[in-house]
Amino acid sequence: MALIVQKYGGTSVGSIERIQAVAEKVAAARERGDQLVVVVSAMSGETNRLIGLAKEIEEHPSAREMDVLVSTGEQVTIALLSMALHKIGCPAKSYTGGQVNILTDSAHSKARIRKIDDIKVRADLDAGRVVVVAGFQGVDDLGSITTLGRGGSDTTAVALAAALKADECQIFTDVDGVYTTDPRVEPKARRLSKISFEEMLEMASLGSKVLQIRAVEFAGKYNVPLRVLSSFEEGEGTLITFEDKGMEDAKISGIAFNRDEAKFTIQGVQDQPGVAYRILGPISDANIEVDMIIQNIGQDGTTDFTFTVHRNDYDKALAILNGVAQEVGAREVKGDNTIVKISLVGVGMRSHAGIASSMFAALSKEGINIRMISTSEIKISVVVDEKYLELGVRALHEAFNLSAEPAKIG
Amino acid sequence: MALIVQKYGGTSVGSIERIQAVAEKVAAARERGDQLVVVVSAMSGETNRLIGLAKEIEEHPSAREMDVLVSTGEQVTIALLSMALHKIGCPAKSYTGGQVNILTDSAHSKARIRKIDDIKVRADLDAGRVVVVAGFQGVDDLGSITTLGRGGSDTTAVALAAALKADECQIFTDVDGVYTTDPRVEPKARRLSKISFEEMLEMASLGSKVLQIRAVEFAGKYNVPLRVLSSFEEGEGTLITFEDKGMEDAKISGIAFNRDEAKFTIQGVQDQPGVAYRILGPISDANIEVDMIIQNIGQDGTTDFTFTVHRNDYDKALAILNGVAQEVGAREVKGDNTIVKISLVGVGMRSHAGIASSMFAALSKEGINIRMISTSEIKISVVVDEKYLELGVRALHEAFNLSAEPAKIG
Lengths: 410, 410
What we know:
By secondary structure, the first copy, chain A, is α/β, with parallel strands linked by helices.
């Protein structure tokens, strides 16, 4: 008998019919002998409807009252799912975040979970009930309702799984797992049966929307095995787990990419201590996040300083840099908002040399010019012109043979 | 500085505009120097929408989960009203029933309040905040959400007023007070500035829809002065209070009536012990409520047994009685579902003789035949043919001079 925490997002519970389909899935898992805790989001559209009501009154409503308002969305879903489970003969009991003491700090709308009291949940599980918990919400020291912010229901599920020492935390979503790359770009993309936490973190931070990065971090911190599955199709999904001998023997697990990039180069900067801070300080002060940073030393005692930001911040950053360039005596500021980032991700990279050179060779063979390179222990990222995105991804997918099922070892 | 509990029903908070209007009313009262606790219902239509969702899943959903579901309705309102108060510069804080520990028994959907913990509310009032509380809901010993059933928000308001020893509990509704009779029947009906609890209880039990009978009982039990006012018009409304020397010196306060009556007479019943039980037992077993009961002894050692029921139960009761009549050897069962009940209500009745004879004289003068009479300490009810309802009410209103402002004494 395994203890499983399942999480269903807003689309998966978006109508009465879908809630009934989720009930069938949950009841079937219980029939197989597992103990089940089910975390649900608000029905899709409901949170936006509630926010709309608030905005009719006040553009910037009190964060505390906003949490009181939007937390009703998940509360509706837990009641309806419990009813749907009862209807098919499956004993179930619903709890709001507050009722199972999901204790958070008081940062309304972006609260962080501090502690979960699992006594009630364990008692219900021991009595043979499915426990249905409202995602995204908790309660602070004062008893005020809090919400966890974006991806909060994933975090609730992982936190509950950690508190209960669950055997697995299953995130049901509208995709059936994590792929070697986006199948819309490379139709030969293959679903991974396993991926490591570190790889998943890199994939998530690079824009893969399957899981919220905070939930992945949380799962990694508390050693919770995470599985991503489809709400709508059968399948094993992708297990996000710890690197071990049973894992796929691949050097590279996947190819992530990010279209939302823009790049700046400040040319001819005097190569003096503190110059990087003088350039990036004003950028950071304007709340613009910087991603890759590269500095090359030129021949004449000056240096070229290059970095990337989110494409939405391009205009704001360019205006700041034009001011800064004069102050630091730079020759020129060059901006480019038609670039993208492509990254190879794989824990196998650590032990296999030559990945970078294979990558550069594959891109070069297609005539793709690399504008920037940045590496980490399990990732190599390159910046290229956006017109090469699809070609680059497919070339790398082919070069590293990602469509093929890997041989199992161990 | 007075401490006032105000309650606004579903119609009064039925749209964003109306919620904003309520906020204005509340803020104005606070400006006048009062401390305010505001109890609100779900926006009109919202509870039915939620029940509709549940019914799509299950005709008879779990009462516990139903309470989890419908209690979101009031939770939405408290958040929106608090935002609307903030918007106009009035400090306010919202609480669900559970958050202010409105402790009830576990009778889901018809729970009764056991205790209210007023610590949080008092702290907010002392800090100058308006406290906005979700009506209709509480929490049981296990922390499960409960709802109070019909009129529950009125009961929440009265219970809070009792716990806080409030100076007044104001029920805002779509009428501007309690009238001597229904103004749709007698246009000369006059709003009462005061009415006693006992009179209000009789008026409510006779079908006057202004206040829920449970809330009135609760207010009487805990000596909470209740005031009924209009959400939409200015005015003093009607104060429901204890009989005292300052009250209106009227013999009669009002005329109530009930159109939903039906009457049965079992004729020629042998006048033996137990015969009343043999007739009414099967009626009661069928969950039919009996209102007035009259038994006259005939000349021939037999008796006529007459009683009234709700008109909806007429067919069911008639079928049962036709069976019973044979068993008890009765001559005939006569049913009539075209009758109504008219009642005079007034605490003054206790000390003034002759009210009954004045009543009968007034009806007789209009040629109205009285079919049944029943009296209590502060009420005289008569059953008449339904065609005489309006005529009878107006004749009595005139006979007891109810349109005139009473002289004040004391």
